[in-house]
Amino acid sequence: MVTLPAAGRRVSRGAAFRSYPSASQRLLAAVLLLPAGLLAPGGWITPAALQAEEPAATPAAAQTTNHLAGENSLYLRMHAHNPVDWRPWGEEALTLAKREKKPIFLSIGYSSCHWCHVMERETFVDKEIAAYLNKHFICIKVDREERPDVDDIYMTSLHVFAQLSKSGKGGGWPLSMFLTPDAKPFFGGTYFPARDGDRAGATGFFTLIQKIEEVWEANPENIHRDADLLTRVTRQQLAAAPPALLTPPTAATIEACLEALAEDYDPRYGGFRFSEDNPNVPKFPEPSNLIFLFGRAAAGKDSPDKTIQQQGSQALAMATGTLDHIAQGGIRDHIGGGFHRYSVDRFWRIPHFEKMLYDNGQLASAYALGYAATGNEAYAQATRELLDFLLREMTSPAGGFYAAIDAESEDEEGKFYRWTKEELQSRLTPAEFTLLAAVYGVDNPPNFEDEYYALQLDQPLSRIAEARGLKEAQLNAQLEPIRKKLLAVRDQRERPLTDTKILTGWNGLMIRGLADAGRLLQEPRYLAAAEKAADLVLTKLRQPDGRLLRSYSEGEAKLNAYLTDYAFLVDGLLALHEATGEQRWLTAADKIMALQLELFWDDKFGGFYFTSDDHEELLARTKREYDGAIPAGGSVSVDNLVNLAQRLDRPEYLAKARQTVNAAGGLLANSPGASPRMVHALARLLEVEALQEKKAPVPAP
């Protein structure tokens, strides 16, 4: 059985994938797919083969309108005028596929995804391709941020397909899956160029859909058989499984997690999972790792045990080493504040330029914790810059936080953020330019696309200041008016799109970040912003019976909330209670946790499903336990349950926390580094359990 990990984690191939039967195997041979190396695993790197100038888009007729026109998702509305007859995911589209006995083309993406935009411009506005799709397929478009359940299922099926077919391809977005009329996957990929030869000899999407239609018409039984196999293995990956351990996770699991992260740690540039041989393997901030490490650092500081003290020092060094290098690199927006989604290289130099709310919410907590642990003012500055950016550019008038800012503007990734030396010289005085160039690397050759600069620090600002005979605060004071001047210049450019939908769970992460920063940096305005957002979510994204909804946009809240929405909102409310002492946040957190237990709890094995018990029926009811770019709902829930148990004296919550940890015992034993937030919560659970044991009466002989 294959273990499918979180983004960026290793994939092992098991005996289940030694062969793949007829139809899809022949289809692979016929289509040839993409040449090796075109997309990196995960679809993260922008490969050199794709950096050629994009072909001009074929303009869609102005009057073309499909079934997405009434949607309030920005991503779906961006495709509402494609000639492709897109439909939103739902009963109507799925019923139509069954009635007409047509395969489904499922395209999943999100509004800030650069290659999603590229595929639309190249392919989905092409009238010939659209006509063929409309005739032979039912075309469904999904916003993965609105429907993470659908995305998880079909992304998992793509990973399984890649291993069954031994194609060597990874996952990523846009996700392009082909399904039988009953929504079972049988073939898939990520980005496809429109036509043969458009991208370094890659097979074009138009050829692909014709080959799929040819096989479907000639022998649909084979495709159905392959789809059944692919669906069966996908369900095995996604279905809840019983605990693999008879012994519950203990303190040894915490040590094993620290060792796993130390093994993956990059001692030279910070961060985790890197390759000495290939510096262009992308790096993600992985805030869940940082939260765990700061927890271990605090435990070491408070412990009389020398081993735990040493582990705490090791954890602190990894956490601060990562924060330092992220803060220096181009992944940080040195002009406007905040952080881009990830770096396309080991060194944090060149980012993928989209800005996601979930990253910035978690990094606000991480940098605030870094400041609390070290007193390093650079961490406080990074936190303030991040939150000031967020409040300026990603906050609705009502106080909720927007989902994302696009990676591209004017059809070019990073155009909003990049600079030429000539532009910088023309916008600054000679003295200002000389200082900026020395500090942010403009004295060096261009670092982005051979002619532009993504501004970054070659070394910590404190070291640059020392070399100039200044204190860091003095150098910052000199740089601040230069940064403000460049921000004003940048604000005159065409801005990337902002996806203004408000997602419950992502707002919960941001509420936590603001509450942590407000408490640890003693900034009341951040607490006020967190409270305003919490009030909005509790008012606009909660139904009369208390249940949460997923998404709020265009004045309408819709879609069942997921486990992460409940867990992250509870976490944010608990952070607000800790920071302000106001009882109303604790009361609201308790009510939402009670609902979460009612709707998502797994009565058989413990822990939580990702979807509620009355959610629409999909291929599988998923139960994910690993922490990716966003932590697992179960991981955060353990922390929430322990906190509520302590603050409200609710021992039943502590029992649920233990059951949730035990349900993840197999993962924690085999891959403890895959779920650092769960292990962080385990450490807190063990502390509270130990305190309870001391209070327990001595048993009778």
Quick overview of this protein structure:
This protein is of the alpha+beta class and 701 residues long.
Structure in words:
With 701 residues, this protein is of the alpha+beta class. It has two domains: 64-238, 3-Layer(aba) Sandwich (Glutaredoxin), CATH 3.40.30; 251-416 and 493-693, Glycosyltransferase (Alpha/alpha barrel). It is 50% helix and 7% strand. It contains 25 helices and 15 strands. The protein has helices at 22-31, 74-77, 91-100, 114-124, 127-136, 148-165, 205-218, 220-238, 251-264, 287-302, 306-328, 357-374, 377-393, 421-427, 430-440, 461-467, 472-490, 504-520, 524-540, 563-580, 583-600, 633-648, 651-663, 665-670, 676-695; strands spanning 87-88, 104-109, 138-143, 175-179, 185-189, 342-343, 351-352, 355-356, 404-405, 408-409, 412-413, 498-499, 502-503, 549-553, 556-560. The strands form five sheets. Strands 1-3-2-4-5 form a five-stranded mixed β-sheet, with helices on both faces. A three-stranded antiparallel β-sheet has the order 8-9-12. Strands 13-14-15 form a three-stranded antiparallel β-sheet. Strand 4 (175-179) and strand 5 (185-189) form a beta hairpin. Helix 10 runs antiparallel to helix 11, helix 10 packs parallel to helix 12 (357-374) and helix 20 runs parallel beside helix 22 (633-648).
